[in-house]
Design brief:
7 helices, 7 strands
Length: 213
C-alpha cells in the first residue's frame, strides 16, 4: 500500500464489527480477501452501476459478498466456493451478517458446475476472484450469463507485482499461473465484445463492459 492508499484508507475504516472480525480472521488464517483500497474502489464502481444481481466466482469466507449487499440495498449475490472449509466459514459469516435472504452460496468448483445450478442467466455483474491461472476459463464459462451492458470485474490482475517480472524471476510453482494471467489480460483487452479497462488500484482491477447486442 502506497502513501496515497494509506491516506484514502484513513477515510474508510469499517464500523461493522463482523467485517472487522472477518478481516482479522483472513489475516490470521491466510485467507485471500480483497484488500481495503481495492474493495473500496470496487464498491464505488458497483454503486455507480447499481447491479440488481451479481454472480461471484470465489467466495472465500464471504467477505466481498457481504460488503456488496451491505453497500447495495437492492442487490442480491450468488457466490461459488470450492474450498470446503472456507465454504463452511462463509455460510456462518453470511448467517451472522443477516443477509441470508440476499446471498446464495454454492459449494463446488465453478469450472465443473452445471448451468442449471445458477438462479438466473441475466446477471448484471460478474465478479471473478478465484484461481488466477483460470481467469480465461472462468470468463469464457460465465460471461454468457451476464446481460448485455453488464460488467465483469476481475481482481488481482497484478498478482502483487509478479506480472511485471521476467519468467525466470518468478518462482517455478507460480510461472504457469502468471503466464495464464498475462495471456488472459492481453486477450480480454483486445476482445471486440467488451469495453475493457485495467485500473491500477489495490492489486489491479479489470473492468470489462459487455457490449450491447
Amino acid at each position: 500500500m502506497n502513501e496515497y492508499e494509506d491516506y484514502i484508507a484513513g477515510f474508510s475504516e469499517l464500523s461493522n464489527p463482523l467485517l472487522q472480525e472477518m478481516e482479522q480472521y483472513a489475516a490470521l488464517n491466510h485467507v485471500p480477501i480483497m484488500d481495503r483500497s481495492g474493495m473500496e474502489t470496487f464498491i464505488g464502481l458497483l454503486r455507480i452501476q447499481q447491479p440488481k444481481q451479481i454472480l461471484e466466482i470465489g467466495s472465500a469466507i464471504g467477505y466481498s459478498a457481504i460488503r456488496m449487499v451491505e453497500a447495495l440495498q437492492n442487490t442480491s449475490v450468488v457466490t461459488i466456493e470450492r474450498d470446503a472449509d472456507r465454504y463452511v466459514s462463509a455460510v456462518d459469516y453470511i448467517r451472522r451478517s443477516g443477509f441470508e435472504d440476499r446471498i446464495t452460496i454454492i459449494e463446488g468448483d465453478a469450472l465443473d458446475l452445471d448451468d442449471e445450478v445458477l438462479n438466473t442467466t441475466g446477471y448484471d455483474a460478474l465478479f471473478i476472484d478465484a484461481a488466477k491461472g483460470q481467469y480465461k476459463r472462468f470468463f469464457e464459462k460465465y460471461s454468457r450469463h451476464v446481460a448485455p451492458g453488464g460488467v465483469i470485474y476481475c481482481d488481482n490482475m497484478f498478482m502483487h507485482g509478479a506480472i511485471l517480472l521476467e519468467d525466470e524471476d518468478i518462482p517455478k510453482r507460480n510461472r504457469t499461473m502468471i503466464r495464464n494471467l498475462k495471456a488472459f489480460t492481453a486477450w480480454i483487452m483486445q476482445h471486440p465484445a467488451y469495453e475493457t479497462s485495467l485500473l491500477p488500484v489495490g492489486d489491479g482491477i479489470l473492468i470489462a463492459v459487455k457490449r450491447e447486442e
